[in-house]
Write a structure and sequence with these properties.
285 residues, Rossmann fold, five-stranded parallel sheet, three-stranded parallel sheet, 10 helices
């Protein structure tokens, strides 16, 4: 991602037909997917916090070393909804726009709270609509819903529950999952799945770490022929651990994004035999 940013900025600066007489500068920071660090990092860019630590950073000095006192005109990031909440709140105080490329939480759609937040991806409510449409299309009307305890999972699950209830879909299991793995939590998930033994469709809205907790419980429950709609948060990709757990659970997997709903439905419509006898494998869309 950092290399792509530098490449794009250099290409724009080399051209005379884009932003003539303007030279773009860029400064790269890492929030380490931590809310506190995202807040502090944003403040060091747009405010006075951490000024001494970054006194030599672009774009605050001219060639002769004098302070320019120029603030960034915008921030690109962060990649996660949880960190974007803090970064957008901080940048908004200084009227500096923050544009995220993968933060999808509906909480960030509140223009009163985040007037300077923008994004290049749709919010989660559209994913919820697409998921429920998918469930209705294939007559999957008895499901389990697991979600992470964060802004993405809580708001996304809320939308799914509301739409599912209106559509007559029964959510037999509605369970919030913490990102850390523990024996008690895994045991609770296993118990929930065993109680609702007629569920054959499981929806998970979470980060990868939280999804792994649910997948581990599914493995221990010895579930078979499960259709899994895995909505991984903020554009995260599948990890090796996640792929391994899925292979041991014997599910038919969809790594789901709202933008590919029509393609997914088309492929699934032509795979009814596969749905009736799910393979022990992975399908990614």
């Amino acid at each position: 991602m950092a290399e792509s940013m530098l490449f794009a900025v250099n290409k724009v600066n080399q051209r005379n037909d884009i932003l003539p007489n303007v030279t773009l500068g860029v400064e790269l920071r890492n929030d380490c997917s931590d809310e506190g660090l995202a807040l502090w990092t944003t403040n060091t860019l747009v405010g006075s916090v951490g000024d001494l630590e970054y006194k030599d950073a672009c774009p605050y000095q001219s060639r002769d070393g004098n302070r320019l006192g120029v603030q960034p005109i915008g921030i690109v990031g962060t990649s996660r909804s949880t960190t974007s909440l803090f970064a957008a709140k901080s940048s908004g105080v200084y009227h500096v726009p923050l544009v995220s490329y993968t933060a999808t939480s509906d909480e960030l759609s509140d223009a009163k709270r985040f007037p300077y937040f923008l994004r290049t991806v749709p919010p989660d409510k559209f994913q919820a609509i697409a998921i429920v449409d998918l469930l209705l299309h294939f007559h999957w009307e008895y499901i389990a819903l697991f979600y992470s305890i964060d802004t993405y999972g809580i708001h996304g699950a809320k939308h799914i529950r509301t739409l599912a209830e209106n559509a007559g879909i029964c959510i037999a299991v509605n369970f919030p999952v913490a990102s850390f793995d523990s024996e008690s939590q895994t045991s609770d998930i296993v118990s929930k799945l065993q109680e609702a033994n007629k569920v054959n469709v499981i929806v998970i809205m979470s980060y990868r770490n939280t999804a792994n907790v649910v997948l581990q419980a599914m493995k221990e429950s010895n579930l078979k022929d499960i259709i899994l709609l895995l909505v991984v948060m903020d554009g995260e990709v599948m990890s090796k651990k996640m792929a391994t757990l899925i292979q041991y659970t014997g599910v038919y997997l969809c790594v789901f994004t709202a933008a590919l709903t029509k393609l997914f439905v088309s492929i699934m419509t032509n795979s009814q035999k596969t749905l009736q006898h799910p393979p022990n494998g992975i399908e990614t869309f």
